[in-house]
Amino acid sequence: MIQRFDGHIVGLGTTSGTRVVVGMWDRSPYGRFADAMVERPDGHRVLLAPDERIADLVSTTYTFDDVRIVPVALAGWGIDAGPLSARWTPGTRAPIGWLLQAVPTPLAHREAWARFCDPIARRVMPGVRTHGSAGRGRTEWYAASDAWGVESAYVVAMAEIHDVDELREVLGTPLPRTVAKDRDRLHPLHVAWLEASPFCLLSTSASDGSCDVSPKGDPAGSLVHVVDEHTIALAERPGNRRADGYLNVLANPHVGLLFVVPGRGDTLRVNGRARLLRTDDAPPSYLEHLEVKGHRPVLVCEVQVEQVFFHCAKAFLRSELWEPSTWRPDAVPSRPEIAHALERSDQTLEEIAAYYGDAYRSQLY
Fold first, then answer.
1. Beta-bridge partner residues of 46
2. Which of 357, 264, 276, 348 is nearest to 313 (CA)?
3. Which of 34, 102, 158, 213 is the most exposed place for a label (fewest CB within 10 A)?
4. What pTM was computed for the model?
5. Do 235 and 222 meet the contact criterion of CB atoms below 8 Å apart?
6. CB burial class (10 A; 0-12, 13-18, 19+) of residue 27?
7. How many CB atoms lie within 10 A of CB 100?
């Protein structure tokens, strides 16, 4: 059985030694598709394919060190495929292109012609073959009908990290004291930090791996209550009722928390397992510690501490987050303007601005 693919192939190279080959197939037994090969300067070859079928087809025809299934999209004379982004400008028809144009189509499509042209193609264009084995007892041949040069090209082939060894090669190995600083229970210094923190981030993950991070804020001393050295309780206040993070907790109890003290660059990280507690029926005995202005939390997220440690201040120092001179709240549209553009287009900007005014603060609890 003969499978026919009609399309174009472009080969690109960079001064750093990266080589890219892109296949753009307008008609094939698999429908219209594109794929790409990226060869690093060290010879490592990666296939970027849009689905399992194409990956299996191409990887059994050619040799690769790595095969990845990624979204592949053509963009004019260009392609975006996972870590690869390439654009090129066609030049003029190459001399061999004029010769190929003169070959009658019936002859150009014959396997015998492709076999005849193969040694010539290898000599004229090193690395190019027009006839050979495709593996699994198959034979492959190219009925080339034209050839053009590439006037200019832009290639970005990001080097993704795929395993622990590669990651450690880039980042290095942590110092022993950095590894050993985490504990499985709260120290009095951890407790003091929690009592002083008015803001934290709660990270969760659903059973399918999708993630969420939610900000939580209250006056210091009311945001989180230390139940014991193994347990903390986080208050939940009235909000938009999306409950993305809490829906995740019901499916996957593992959570991560980062507690911030204003003006401090270091932070406290807490990882553990969470459960959600009602506050209207048989509330937890410590609930009064989480009340603000006489208002109980809507619910309590209780976390069994499995890992706790302080994180250094480098991120806050680099960002200059606590430096008022760097604050530019007007660098982006206001909250009413964002809401009008993305969420409340049926309301006027004035109505939305009024909603986010003084009355908004009065509804916090």
1. 38, 66
2. 264
3. 102
4. 0.69
5. yes
6. exposed
7. 17
Do the Cβ atoms of 32 and 50 come closer than 8 Å? Answer: no
pLDDT of residue 16: 85
pLDDT tens sequence across 203-246: 999 999 999 999 999 999 999 999 999 999 999 999 889 999 99
Structure tokens at 73: 């999209």
pLDDT, tens digit, 9 for 90 and up, residues 167-188: 898 899 999 999 899 999 999 9
Contact call for residues 59 and 47 (beta carbons, < 8 A):
yes
Quick one: which of 248, 184, 265, 259 has its CA closest to 215? 259
Query: Cβ(83)–Cβ(18) under 8 Å?
Result: no
Is the model's pLDDT at 44 over the cut of 80? Answer: yes
